[in-house]
Amino acid sequence: MSNNFKILVVDDEQNILDVVKAYLEKENFEVISAMDGRTAIDIFNSGNIDLIILDLMLPGLTGEEVCRRIRASSSVPIIMLTAKAEEDEKIEGISIGADDYLTKPFSVRELVARVRALLRRTYKNFAPMADILTFNNKDLEVDIKKMLVKKEGKLASLTTNEFKILTIFIMNPEKVFSREELVERAFGGEYEGFDRTVDTYIKNIRQKIESNPKEPVYIVTLYGIGYKFKPNAEEVKK
User: Fold this and answer.
1) What is the DSSP letter of 152?
2) pLDDT tens digits for 209-224?
3) Reduced to 3 DSSP states, what percent helix, strand and coil does the chain have, rounded to the nearest 5?
4) Domains of the chain
5) Does residue 126 register a pLDDT over 90?
């Protein structure tokens, strides 16, 4: 994997910034740091950031709000750092747009390993296919190369992991996937998620691509079995 990636590290503890920066630079990543949320957003808006490591407990603008604002316009992968270890808190992090999370105190070596794994999954894991697929008279449009999704002509900002799962469905129309199969297809054996995490991803995707998420027409549930994608592709563009 090429290491020409630019990583934004956001934490209000200088010692954490220094250690994480040193380890990442040792792996030949370019690292930019910020100690508060507003600075982080300014940096993100001014440069081509490939991945964000984001602490939740920030002064002023919280990490959660930073994540929400970035997710409004970008699918850049985000790893959250949190002192909250409860499962519900982790699910909440995923709900607002995190792709991965680590609980403080954490191993910096593990963080670097997760950074590499997430970059590899994000930028290397998509199979070749048509550039743009449209469904139901352009109600839904998916640009595979640019990782963009539009619903009724408006941008639907999916997270990296949500886009991966949607891509797996699109590549396998009408195929029924269990939760375990979705994890394996989308993330491989490195992912340490759990069943409720997959359900959260599906819920988030439905909120963004379905006209009525409570009555989905694209990603449907087969109770006790899993999920499948029901396409009605009317056009494929190169």
Assistant:
1) T
2) 999 999 999 999 998 8
3) 40, 20, 35
4) 6-124 (3.40.50.2300), 132-237 (1.10.10.10)
5) no
**Long-range contacts formed by 32-40: CB under 8 A, 24+ apart:** 32/6, 32/7, 32/8, 33/8, 33/9, 34/8, 34/9, 34/10, 35/10, 35/11, 35/59, 36/10, 36/12, 36/60, 36/61, 37/10, 37/61, 37/62, 37/63, 37/65, 37/66, 40/8, 40/10, 40/66
Name the residue type at position 50: D
The DSSP output letter for 108 is H
Give dist(CA 192, CA 208) in Å, integer: 25
Which of 13-27, 123-137, 175-189 is predicted most confidently? 13-27
**Span between the terminal Cα atoms of the chain, in Å:** 27
pLDDT > 90? residue 48: no
Confirm whether pTM is higher than 0.85: no
Give the whole-angstrom CA distance, residue 222 versus residue 225.
5
DSSP code for 139: T
Half-sphere exposure of 179 (CA within 13 A, CB side): 14
Going from the C-alpha of 75 to that of each of 59, 107, 119, 123, the distances in angstroms are 24, 26, 12, 12
The answer to which of 52-66, 110-124, 130-144, 223-237 has the lowest mean pLDDT is 223-237
Residues 130 and 236: beta-carbon distance below 8 Å:
yes
Residue with structure tokens 């380890």?
A: 23
The amino acid occupying position 107 is S
Check residue 128 and give its pLDDT. 43
